[in-house]
Amino acid sequence: QVQLVESGGGLVQAGGSLRLSCAASGSMFRINTMGWYRQAPGKQRELVASITSGGNTNYADSVKGRFTISRDNAKNTVYLQMNSLKPEDTAGYYCYADVATDLPWKSRGYWGQGTQVTVTS
């Protein structure tokens, strides 16, 4: 039973910045990888960025150099700093967390409700 709550979305002009936050709460053993996905109208959901518990990061090519993912393990929170936003970044952004169980070969995935990011030209 893990809950992910996103915040920080909104309406911004092209070139602006937003910072998304996702806080995990509830009963959990350990959070492995956390990440951000997005889904725009008419498009498939895509991985934007991910970060492991050890701090290794991965980014979609479309956001490299503009977005930065980070996490605060003590707070079970992941962030996505989005700079130089473009209209094509407009999408619903969803937080994801891979949570370990007591079984070393098993983990569970959890999704947040999503937060809307709209970038105007």
List keywords for this structure.
four-stranded antiparallel β-sheet; 121 residues; mainly beta; elongated; seven-stranded mixed β-sheet; single chain
Describe this structure in words.
By secondary structure, the protein is mainly β. Helices cover 0% and strands 59% of the residues. It contains no helices and eleven strands. The strands form two sheets. Strands 2, 4, 5, 6, 9, 10 and 11 form a seven-stranded mixed β-sheet that branches. The protein has a four-stranded antiparallel β-sheet with strand order 1-3-8-7, with no helix packed on it. Strand 5 and strand 6 form a beta hairpin.
List the helices and strands and how they pair.
Blueprint lengths: L1 E6 L2 E4 L4 E9 L3 E10 L6 E6 L5 E3 L7 E6 L4 E6 L8 E10 L6 E5 L3 E6 L1
Parallel strand pairs: 2-11
Antiparallel strand pairs: 1-3, 3-8, 4-5, 4-9, 5-6, 7-8, 9-10, 9-11
Note the beta-strand portion.
over 45%
Span of the ends, CA to CA: 40 Å
Shape, principal axes of CA atoms: elongated
What's the number of helices? 0
- Structural class call reads mainly beta
Backbone CA Rg: 14 Å
Can you count the beta strands?
Answer: 11
Q: What ranges have pLDDT less than 50 throughout 5 or more consecutive residues?
A: none
Please write the string of helix (H) and strand (E) elements.
EEEEEEEEEEE
Mean pLDDT across the residues is: 95
Helix content: under 10%
Largest sheet: 7 strands, mixed
